[in-house]
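Narrative of activities, Objective 1.

The group set out to show that a structural description can be obtained from nothing but a protein's sequence at a throughput compatible with the screening campaign. Below is one input-output pair from the validation batch, recorded exactly as produced.
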Amino acid sequence: MKSLLCLQMMTRMRGRFSTNMNEQGIREVLRALGCHSIRRCGDHVRANCPLAPYTHKKGTDRHPSFLVKIEEFDKSCYHCFSCRSKGTLNGLLFELQQMGTHVDPELVEKVKRTERQDPSQKAIQRAGTPLFSKHFLLAQKKHKEEVWSEEEYKPFSGKLHKYILSRGLSVDTCKRWEIGYDSDKKRVMFPVRRYPDGSLVGAVGRTIEKGVEPTYLTYFNFKKSHFLYGEHFLRRASEGVFAEAMGYDLPAQDGVIIVEGMMDVLKLYEIGYENVVGLMTATISKRQVSTIKKTGRDVYLMLDWDRAGISGRASAAKAFSQKCQVYDVPGIRKCDCGSRWSELNNSGDHVCKECGASWTNYSEDEKRLKDPDGLTEEETLDCLRSSKIVRISS
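Output recorded for this entry:
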């Protein structure tokens, strides 16, 4: 009888000071990490793997293989049968932070208090061998190197040169996009942030002095082909949140508008668009295509209406043709037959799509008609309203 009472007392005390994470707590942690398909599976909670973007071949876990064991008196451990990663929840949060994923500090503290474990301990193991392959470790290192501290951009932030305001941008827009100025190199600064966490990955500086080359200079070892200017706002696009400034009656609000330059992006933002990104060149890369596809939205190609832009528009249309609806946005310049649609033939000349006539090259007076940022607000909206679906033959 005495032994039974002692056992009951020990059990109560153990429960009182238990370090376990119950099922509800595990579900809250997984939801906070963006996991879906969360459900009970025996004495485990199953969900898609939060490490999938880093450890799974295709970056996804379509068939949830991530299990967290519900422990009554011990730390809650997880195991992914796809990437073979395993460890504690506390260690999982630590690893995600190390990989560059933003994790809510309050969530980290809550799990740390519950699990009572030092996150600096080795959290993930794979049968006594390193978790990640050499290929993945190199990819992870590259992924980390692309992200820069906010301190790197601090010398340029909060400085507005009159040049940028003379281009028709408001102070509010400049603040929202964190436009700055490099007083040493005399360049207006455009910081670039990645989708979806908004981490700083680089910056582009535009000279304000005539004759200075190059016109655009990259900072922080920035690779323009890896990112899109404005892509950190695409999370709002994927959620269907558009145009805070002007409501939801603008044309092309149902997709992602692709332009070339930073000023093209900012001019469209002034009108009320947030679903717009800039290639920072005329040719789209595979990585940029991959980022836009994640939104699940249609694509509107509004590149410059010159040789490079029309050529880049054709390659971009092919890249998206199997995944989403692609629209071509015409310029405002017209052929003699009245058509605003042109394409490049084999010799590199502009040809009217309607009548087949050859268009002459643009004169200097028509230069503003070639770039979206040179159009008035009404001209821009008219171009977007006139968008046509691109038909790509198989």
